[in-house]
Design goal:
Length: about 130
């Protein structure tokens, strides 16, 4: 099912599938897809206040919001560049809170090599701000 089909299905549902704090993909007016975090949900207006990686906030309609796995399915890929290669010095790191993956150099700020240790805790920029 395409992202647009999922959006139509989700928008026709009675309840919105996401909640405050969820990390999602937002299809913006420029037709590009951006990574964002839901700050508030307004069921009555069917909109969300979202925060982008650069801390800008905006309002998005429910049909603009997509699950992270609607674009990247069944394999680990960087949410920013959508590539799944994970080679030094730019390996993929998963956030311990939300499970979203980033290349070390795609995340802002860049992810330190120390986060690659199996027991090292690491949170993405969105989860750290919560």
């Amino acid at each position: 099912m395409s992202v647009r089909s999922k959006a139509r299905t989700a928008s026709s549902a009675l309840q919105f599938a996401f909640s405050t704090g969820d990390v999602v993909l937002v299809q913006w007016s420029d037709e590009r897809i951006y990574y964002a975090k839901i700050k508030t949900v307004n069921q009555k207006k069917r909109t969300c206040q979202i925060m982008f990686e650069d801390n800008r906030r905006a309002t998005a309609d429910f049909d603009q919001i997509h699950a992270v796995d609607s674009v990247v399915d069944d394999w680990i890929a960087c949410i920013v560049c959508k590539f799944g290669t994970s080679d030094p010095p730019n390996q993929i790191v998963l956030c311990d809170q939300c499970g979203v993956s980033f290349h070390q150099k795609c995340h802002r700020p860049h992810i330190a090599d120390s986060a690659l240790e199996p027991t090292a805790p690491w949170e993405c920029i969105y989860c750290r701000k919560n």
